Amino acid sequence: MAELNNDLFSKIGNLSVDGYFIYSVESKSFQYLNDSFGKIWGIEKNQILNTPKLLVNRIHPEDIDHAKSCLEECLEDGTEKKYEFRLLVEHVEKYVRMIIYPVNNISGLDLVGTVEDTTVMRHNKIHIEQINARKNITLEVLAHDLKEPLGMMRLTASSMENDIAKTGSLEMINSVSFIKDMCERNLRLVRSMINKEFLKSAEVEIGKERAELVWELRDVVRFYKRSKLGKTKNFQFTTSSEKIYMRLDSMKFLQVINNLISNSLKFTNDNGYIGVHAEECENSVVISVSDDGIGIPEDLQAGLFNRLPQTLRPGLKGEESGGFGMSIIKSIVDLHQGKIWFESEVGVGTTFYIELPK
């Protein structure tokens, strides 16, 4: 039966564009490889059969430890495993997904599985995530850009209202009232649009993938710096490491960072400081978003993540708060098996910390 299964496996492999393999752990050699396996790795099949260690040289230097730990985990658990890592073929990065099945037979333990080139799919996914993240940031920036002039128009109309009432002109009174109502309606519309968009995307389960955190965070801060908000706030990004690789749902996590920055914008005066920092630790990464704004009063701190009515307060320019942001932030961090906390002092500023496991 084992020979029949191996024969069927080989026939399928010979027809597939994915790589198929059978590797003997005891003899440390491949019992079967299809041609596609060699093409994905960029090495002739016969070379791999003669010198299996050549495969290690193709693994991206930054992923070698990850690949070794994956193999050790598979051998230890003895169950089906799915792994993703990168190859470096002629200076070109290639993403691969490997599915491994440990199979015990008379001759010992074999690792049987497939390898799929996921480079195009990964690049497309990264591109989509970047577009979605930029969309969320753009919406938030647009909201801030719209709220200020609408708020000023509403304030101006209110200041004109008493004087116009003295004229007795019903047409003018109605016109000013119309301006006030339109400003109020559109201010609510802008905030509702942001809250609904954030809620809608947060409802989806997270899908963690390998991501380069420093690049993602630097790109977010860079976008704020280049926007109109960059002229009224001092945005800064710092990091303890030039590159930090970890598994996370980039799109969801950037929503968290974007929402924390949005909160800082509400409660930080013009020319104030808003900073994002990434600190790589031994088993985790700590990301912080800090500002030198008005701070959070002690009586509002306890229920901040629970959307309690008493924790809701308008921003410095009257920005409304629906209270969704903090509870969603906490939910997304929890889904990443992370922790979130903050330190704040009235008149000094606030710093939110997020710790994620590597």
Automatic annotation (TrEMBL):
Reaction(s) catalysed by this chain's protein: ATP + protein L-histidine = ADP + protein N-phospho-L-histidine
Keyword annotations: Kinase, Transferase, Two-component regulatory system
UniProt cross-references to Gene3D superfamilies, sorted A to Z: Histidine kinase-like ATPase, C-terminal domain, PAS domain
EC number(s) per entry: 2.7.13.3
Any GO molecular function: phosphorelay sensor kinase activity
Residues covered by the PAS domain: 5-78
UniProt cross-references to InterPro entries, sorted A to Z: HATPase_C_sf, HATPase_dom, His_kinase_dom, HisK_dim/P_sf, PAS, PAS-like_dom_sf, PAS_fold_3, Sensor_HK_Regulatory
Domain Histidine kinase intervals: 141-358
Matching PANTHER family: SENSOR HISTIDINE KINASE RCSC (PTHR43711:SF26), TWO-COMPONENT HISTIDINE KINASE (PTHR43711)
Protein name: histidine kinase
